[in-house]
Amino acid sequence: MNELFPIFLKLDRLNTLVVGGGNVALEKASALLRNSPGASLTLVAPMFREDTLVYLKDFPQVILCERGFEFSDLEGRDLVICATDNRELHVGIKEVCAERHLLCNVADTPDLCDFYLGSIVQKGDLKIAISTNGKSPTLAKRIRAFLEDVIPEEIQEGLEGMEAVRKTLKGDFQAKIKALNELTKDLVFRK
Ligand SMILES: C[C@@]1(CC(=O)O)C2=NC(=C\c3[nH]c(c(CCC(=O)O)c3CC(=O)O)Cc3[nH]c(c(CC(=O)O)c3CCC(=O)O)/C=C3\N/C(=C\2)[C@@H](CCC(=O)O)[C@]3(C)CC(=O)O)/[C@H]1CCC(=O)O
Ligand SMILES: NC(=O)c1ccc[n+]([C@@H]2O[C@H](COP(=O)([O-])OP(=O)(O)OC[C@H]3O[C@@H](n4cnc5c(N)ncnc54)[C@H](O)[C@@H]3O)[C@@H](O)[C@H]2O)c1
């Protein structure tokens, strides 16, 4: 059984640190920024790969610190993602994060993670997060691609229609739920 609990974070209100500036750091930072372009994000690394620098150019709020990680970098953070090539450093950072009740993800190291990144399907306002409980990120990627393909773009119109209706509904909470269930009961998605 997958016992992970998914939540949807407002990353523009949280302060996230990515330790590392190479391929894996780019993968994790781009996963965050693809979903939350306004994410408040800092990367610290003595070396930033060209690809990372090019990608991050489009996100002026992202702060780059070109030096080795220091424990003071953890001050004021809400989330930390370790993505360097130094495992001992990751173990040390994870330890201090635990002491400070800071949520920490160590890329590709499930044992050290408080949370995993998921595979994310996005269609307008609809977002679906997929987890395989760490069993197979590749399968998660395949399922994402499948869902992206079968969920129609028109889902956004449906969502906007429902939003408009729910704003106009009068009556008590139970009556609203009944009306909304009635409205959506025959909804079938076809491509
Ligand atoms: C979803 C996604 C999010 C993201 O990172 O953005 C993500 N990994 C992605 C891709 C991917 N990662 C890897 C491959 C190579 C093929 C393969 O191994 O399958 C591919 C596929 C590819 O790149 O094509 C390597 C890998 N990953 C982990 C390990 C360690 C281990 O399993 O022990 C190793 C071996 C490293 C090594 O060999 O040394 C571990 C984790 N990777 C997770 C997330 C978490 C579990 C998510 C879940 O429950 O499914 C978890 C536990 C922790 C974390 O990192 O958060 C993103 C897909 C985005 C998308 O396209 O939709
Ligand atoms: N590239 C991949 O897709 C991949 C896949 C599986 C596993 N890995 C493993 O993941 C690790 C990272 O891979 P990568 O390709 O991102 O490497 P990389 O060389 O591109 O990046 C490593 C980053 O870590 C930074 N770093 C090193 N010491 C640091 C410190 N003290 N403080 C802050 N940053 C520091 C470096 O400056 C660099 O930016 C490696 O151990 C690699 O074997 C990589």
| CATH domain fold name of the domain at 15-117 | Rossmann fold
Ligands in the model, by name, code or SMILES, are: ligand PQ2, nicotinamide-adenine-dinucleotide
Head-to-tail CA distance between termini: 31 Å
Question: Which class of secondary structure composition applies to the elements?
Answer: alpha/beta
Oligomer: single chain
CATH superfamily of the domain at 15-117: NAD(P)-binding Rossmann-like Domain
- The number of distinct β-strands equals 7
Rg over C-alpha atoms, rounded to the nearest angstrom: 20 Å
Strand content: 15-25%
Structure description:
The model has no long low-confidence stretch (mean pLDDT 95). β2 (40-44), α2 and β3 form a beta-alpha-beta unit. It is elongated, with a radius of gyration of 20 Å. It has six helices and seven strands. The two termini are 31 Å apart. The strands form two sheets. It has a five-stranded parallel β-sheet, with helices on both faces. The chain has a two-stranded antiparallel sheet with strand order 6-7. Among the domains are: 15-117, 3-Layer(aba) Sandwich (Rossmann fold), CATH 3.40.50; 155-184, no CATH class. With 191 residues, the protein is an alpha/beta fold. It is 38% helix and 16% strand. α1 (23-35) packs parallel to α2. The chain has helices at 23-35, 50-56, 87-99, 137-150, 155-168, 173-184; strands at 15-19, 40-44, 63-65, 79-82, 103-106, 119-123, 126-130. Bound molecules: ligand PQ2 and nicotinamide-adenine-dinucleotide. Ligand PQ2 binds at residues 27-28, 31, 105, 107-108, 110, 113, 116-119, 131-134, 136-138, 140-141, 144. It holds the Pfam family Sirohm_synth_M. Residues 124-149 form the Siroheme synthase central domain. Pathway: Porphyrin-containing compound metabolism; siroheme biosynthesis; sirohydrochlorin from precorrin-2: step 1/1. It catalyses: precorrin-2 + NAD(+) = sirohydrochlorin + NADH + 2 H(+). Keywords: NAD, Oxidoreductase, Porphyrin biosynthesis.
